[in-house]
Amino acid sequence: MASPRLETYCCPNRDAATQLVMDFQPEVFCGVCIGSASVSLLLTILQLLPKKGQSPRKMPKASSSSTILLLISICDILGGLGVIFRSSIWLGFPGFIANISVVNGTDVWPSTFCVGSAMWIQLLYSAGFWWLFCYAVDSYLVVRRSAGLSTIVLYHMMTWGLAVMLCVEGIALLYYPSLSSCENGLEHAIPHYITTYAPLLLVLVANPILFRRTVSAVASLLKGRQGIYTENERRLGTEIQMRFFKIMLVFVICWSSNIINETLLFYLEMQPDINEMPLKNIRSAALITWIIMGVLNPMQGFLFTLAFYGWTGWRVDLKWRKREIPWESMSSSTAGENAYPAPVNYQSNIHDSKKISTTDSQQTDEAISMLSEGNTSSDERLTRSSPIYQGW
Questions:
Q1: How far apart are CA 156 and CA 161, in angstroms?
Q2: What are phi and psi of 316, to 5 degrees?
Q3: If pLDDT is split at 50, 70 and 90, which confidence band does 193 have?
Q4: Which of the four, 6, 195, 210, 229, has the lowest number of CB atoms within 10 Å?
Q5: Domain span including residue 230
Q6: What's the CA angle centered on 52, arms 61 and 368, to 5 degrees?
Q7: Domain holding 86: CATH number?
Q8: From CA 377, how far away is CA 392, in angstroms rounded?
Q9: Is residue 185 situated within a structural domain?
């Protein structure tokens, strides 16, 4: 799982609250992390592989939304691999990890492994948070027809740049001036926790707002496509809204325990003695949420694929085939049929106006399809209701 307490544990003079959770059933905790991350990893890969009898997912060339969804899954997969590797070393070589607690020890490899593995996990999950924020931004830009292939470069720069900058800055402030001197006060730890949880809180606050505005813009697009708002279009807008709701629901389920746990541990740190009897319930709640984090954090990858694509099935097809996008073939055939100029200027003007209307409708259909990607029924309804499909 991902928690700033993992970096804090690398300090030999760690605080009492961190020591409390890290010493609570470490074998059970590592086993839970390995089991949850392994199941999530296998199911996520299974979800992403093409299935027999189904066409591979392929989005319009001007879309960056499908790329962002794939990058979110990749971040979760690599983060899960880091959780499995770190927990396996902790579980298989307890003596190696015990050397981290030795102040002024001569063996630097335990501390190097501790810091490196914790940074790997934090960096990838933080990048996943930033990509999820970019997905919300891109969804809104898509319906506003302001997104395309050029925006994915900006998303890469923002996501990886901010994730690396915040991770390095937080670690540097935590371990300043050295590993043996960190955690002498909250002034070391608080900046590290802020840089860790800033992208998480950004997704919790900003994404619902962006998703809500996107849904409103989708409704306007569907109404303006043909001037009417049919039952199919209303159902398609509801499905897009439900998809956004599922994404935020998965995010809240997987990471709310981290916020609760961190709040409880910070409260314990501020007490003179965390072992006092009045604090027993708080200690128990902190330990329970610590185990819950070990289960839910690595499961985010698989749960996100369910929110993105739904359950794709078990029958894997490793033969990749390019799926023809309905509006591409139909628009090309329409363009071929109408390639000849009209003999009268009046008919040519009519043809130009129809061409403009067809282009606008095509852009609208592509925008809606990007948001409902992975939903076969939505794609079929969209294609049947498209003016291009109807032979405009």
A1: 8
A2: -90, 135
A3: confident
A4: 229
A5: 4-51+63-309
A6: 35
A7: 1.20.1070.10
A8: 23
A9: yes
